[in-house]
């Protein structure tokens, strides 16, 4: 099975002499020592090159060389090399030893120095006993010697690492990320891995080579490549590896007892939030929820940049991730609203980098409080609203249906009324796949919320719409954290039914599509996110137990009231039309008007409630203030 790594990769023991050599080389990596050593060696190279050039020019007659003039020429050239090299960061540790970037920078710097020195030699050289051909002859010799010194340094670094320090690894992916990763692995002596082979499924790269590492086949060739190289790890370096590919990787690597590692998403690397060496273990999220999402940044920026954006339920898993993603597009003001002060603190930490809870960006309020919402909307005047606040646990709401009514139905109506009162430009209601052919309190309450949103869109003509998707991986109280806790406690793992399936998507991917949906949705629509194929919960349980390395039993508890064996993303009659984005389908939902909301008619569907509830529908007159 795929090994789970707990901590650093184990290192093979090194001899005392080896450790002393490593210590010396580590000191040489310090910026000041590296600058001193490189500039000194380049100075020696220029001095020798200029002397040898004159020796060749005078046909090996050393008596014709003018020592004083040659000394001045060498001093001027070394000074020019130091100044130009510093200005171009050749000696600042900016470039990796032996890399193409360093070769290019060094060539430009050294050629520039040669031109600067050659001009005065051309004009006055003969007067001081310096042949005019000295500098042109010395330049190629100096460049070759400088290249050789840096290449030797690179070889020493690579040999130092591959000898004892790092674990042999196969890199899957010979594209940009694979190239960058291999370069880092070969030049960073602190890397826990060194590359012994490349794999890539593209026929065009079958015989490619990246920095002395050959492509030895495709992913299906992994067993024979492992046998040939003795690799102990497989690193996936593909920018848009989806869950299907990651599942295939796991299936091929499982029998080989390899450590499977993955890189962070390319977007995180480009933003600087992750580094190329932030390798992590293959996770269940990689196998279930990786979806390549192409974002139309222009359309998103158009409706978010410079706007006042309010997010309800900002302290929840979906709401907090929405806030982080919205913040990237530069809204003039991001208002995070929730009744959970601890959740708000976490959201503020993710967006602002602190959790002081003393700024205007955090608002403590309950969507059930109609007056508070109208006051907040009147004061802050949001232009775009993302409504993520909701109660979501199906079994709990089956027991307390009136709570679903108060929050998911009337709370949504409160937010819609407040939005209409200040003429919000766009309203995005976060819904759930439980609203498609609903059989539970949760599903029916969210279906009503979709209808209320569609009705207000009809009244205002503005893009008030809903976005519907299935389970999100890693959200609070969701399946994966529960399974993880059960495994840590030694089991058993509880599954409702051997055949039950669900749709899954990671929180960032779902939120990215939600933000995208707000840019392309039309008034009254329900936008349904493509969740891929439904996944059997039992398969997830088996995979998580396997990855844990423990012996955990599985107990079947039976479907709970209101639960479906298989979820659907759309109701019968809802067309699967995708006119704009390939992962977002557009459908229409019947509007629900205010006077149709009647608790006395809705409650009997779920039997007697354990708590007394007043049948209250918010006063529509508040929306006309």
Shape descriptor = elongated
Please count the beta strands (DSSP E, at least 2 residues each). 21
Mean of all residue-level pLDDT scores: 84
The domain tally reads 3
> Which class of the largest domain in CATH terms?
Alpha Beta
Compute the CA-based radius of gyration.
33 Å
CATH architecture of the largest domain: 3-Layer(aba) Sandwich
Q: What structural class is derived from the secondary structure elements?
A: alpha/beta
Main β-sheet, in a few words? 8 strands, mixed
Contiguous helical run count: 21
Task: Kindly identify the CATH topology of the largest domain.
Answer: Rossmann fold
Assign the CATH superfamily of the largest domain: NAD(P)-binding Rossmann-like Domain
Query: Which range does the strand content fall in?
Result: 5-15%
Low-confidence stretches: 1-15, 610-615, 621-625
Helix content percent band: 40-55%
Q: Order of strands across the biggest sheet? A: 10-9-8-11-12-13-18-21
